[in-house]
Amino acid sequence: MKLSFNTYHKLTAILGILLAIQLPVLHAQDHAIMIPEGSFHSVLPEIVGEPHQVDAFKLDETAVTNREYLEFLKENPEWQRSSIPSLYAGSDYLRHWKDDLNPENEESLNRPVTRVSWFAANAYCGWQGGRLPSLNEWEYAAQAMDFDSNLEANRFSSNLIGWYSAVDTKVKSDVGSTGIENRYGVEDLFGLIMEWVEDFKPPIADDISLDCGTVGRMQGDASVYSYAMSIRYITRMSFKPTSSTGMLGFRCAYDLNSNKMEI
Amino acid sequence: MNLQAQTQEYKIDGMTFGMPEAEVYTEDYDGPPVVGEYVTMLPNLKPLDYEGNKHHEIRLDTFTQEIEVADGVRFRAWTFGGMVPGPVIHVKEGDKITFTMKNRSDEMVTITKPGLDASDYLDQITENNYMDAKPSIMPMPHSMDFHSGTVAKDDKWRTIAPGETIKFDWVANYAGTYIYHCGTPSVLMHTAMGQHGVVVVSPKDGYETDDRVDEEYVVVQSEYYLKKGAGDLYQYDFEGAQTNQPSHVVFNGHQTILHDQPLTANAGERVRIHFSNNGPSGTSSFHVIGAIFDRVWLEGHPFNEMRGMQTVLLGASSSATIDFIVPEEGKYTLIDHEFSDAEKGATGTLKAGPKQ
Fold first, then answer.
1. At residue A17, does pLDDT exceed 80?
2. Among candidates A211, A238, A239 on the partner chain, residue whose Cβ is nearest the Cβ of B154
3. Residue B327, Ramachandran bin (φ over 0: left; ψ between -120 and 50: alpha; else beta)
4. What is the ipTM of this complex?
5. How confident is the model at residue A150, as a pLDDT?
6. Which of A5, A7, B31, B266 shows its CA 20 to 30 Å from the CA of B121?
7. Domain boundaries, chain B
8. Domain of A162: which CATH number?
């Protein structure tokens, strides 16, 4: 059936708008990977014999990129660098971007966005119909790694500690570039950036009181793996919600049955 | 922060305890990273030229710097003030210090800008940048622990995120040479990465030989655990640190600096060295080849006087104030007589001129 010229264009416009609204959510769901339910041991105190339980959820395949964050900023100008209230971010927020809507350069579009505060990360994930992963969800996904042997696991952890002490934030890399994937295909949980989680400073952090001796108390087993983990926990627990650094970015999580459209 | 109400100030035996709660805040400070009237670069110690006690305002910011620690060995270190070990702070027993530190590990901080003029340290390093320090960024949480201060560690030595500043008071209640270091776990890593230095607290009534001392220096021993990284730079060797196998053991942060720039004196003079073993893990059997220590005050306290020692054994974070007489014109070698340390660099030179 042939439509009149005007109707055709109106329909296209309407469809276009509907599609555009759907697009961010579709994009998110496309690149979000299902992490099945399970349990894991963390370096925070836990009840003996009862590891942390995590329900199934979806996690972004890669960290949020500059390109993706730029889209968010275009649609949510109140989160742009020159408008964002100091309540939500310090003066280092996106300080490496050329200006409000101009990331460093063309090459940086596929790199993880950094220098974003916890508030900003939350807002982005909400815009995508999701949320920040919880600390347990993130760590559970990070621990779902398959190593061929204990030796390999130790070598991996040693390298990780090396990365924590030598990362050069001037050397920028695209998402996916570490080649590190967890069992389910989630990329770069190590070796690219540190990532925000919803509860980066769990209540128990106050009792632990980050100072000398904390690492000793944190190691569940005396393995290199849990040593590396404790460095990560300690670094995260030192942040404030307005913190931002050149090596801190994020990715989003989604509840399993979330099909929300964010308008 | 789960703090009890801080204790009100009180005195015991003439010493002051009970400092106000530390303040942690965010400010866009981008001024000189080292501020203080008696703050110098190793091995220099600035003489205290005041009577009685003084209230010092001191700032040591913490940030990353790429430095040379041995010929051909550079790494991106975590520092206080831009060098490893950090600046020497000189105060008198009984002085109060208001200390400020910004965590600038996410900023490029240049320490060799001329005219920063906030401490002798910055002038000295601009003139003599022997570690060839260059700014670098590696954002990490950090903290400060002054062994010379007596305070609640969960308050004053607390960890701050990049961009934050901490400010607190402490009183130098005891004389001696005390390590300061980052207390953020893993302390082994943070100290090995370079965050340590010393405060020299001179006794209020001095040492017995004060009017006979001709030269006074500060020497700090420490270890590095480094391995080659991906590019030209070295990086932290976690396994080496865990198993106590340093790659370098050095005086004043650099394997050859005390040979390239020897300490100096003349025959017949009395030399005083404030020597600290900052570790993080090793011990030091400090000896000066050709000399015997006339006086040794363990930990730098005048009460702890030993005489006629050939070698002083110091554990990690131990120190001694040492006087010796330079017998003849010639060369003397400062050394950690544990030779596996000496051969990794724990040696230095004192060059003596003729008797004046």
1. no
2. A211
3. alpha
4. 0.86
5. 84
6. B266
7. 10-202, 210-353
8. 3.90.1580
Q: In chain A, where does DSSP find H-type helix?
A: 5-30, 66-75, 118-127, 135-143, 150-166, 204-208, 214-218, 224-237
pTM attached to this predicted model: 0.90
Class of domain B210-353: mainly beta
Counting the structural domains of chain A, the total is 1
Which of A161, A165, A214 best tests the B interface by mutation, with the highest count of B CBs <10 A? A165
Q: Say whether B184 and A234 touch across the interface (CB within 8 A).
A: yes
Query: By residue range, what is the domain housing residue A89?
Result: 5-254
Q: Within 13 Å of residue B31, how many CA atoms lie on the same side as its CB?
A: 11
Pick the more confident residue, A146 or A19.
A146
* Interval A159-180: pLDDT, tens: 888 888 888 777 779 999 998 9
Decide if B189 and A231 are in contact by the 8 Å CB cutoff: yes
- The residue assigned the tokens 């020897």 is B262
Contact B235 A206 (CB under 8 A): no
Of the candidates A43, A38, A34, the one whose C-alpha atom is nearest the C-alpha of residue A53 is A38
Is residue A131 a part of any domain in this protein?
Answer: yes
Specify the CATH number for B10-202; select among 1.10.606.20, 2.60.120.330, 3.30.70.920, 2.60.40.420: 2.60.40.420
Interface contact B152, partner A, CB < 8 A:
no
B residues 20..79 contacting A (CB < 8 A)? 26, 28, 75-76
**Could B141 and A238 be called an inter-chain contact, meaning their C-beta atoms sit closer than 8 Å?**
yes
Contacts of A245 in chain B (CB under 8 A): 105-106, 139, 161-163
Whether residue A263 is contained in a domain is answered as no
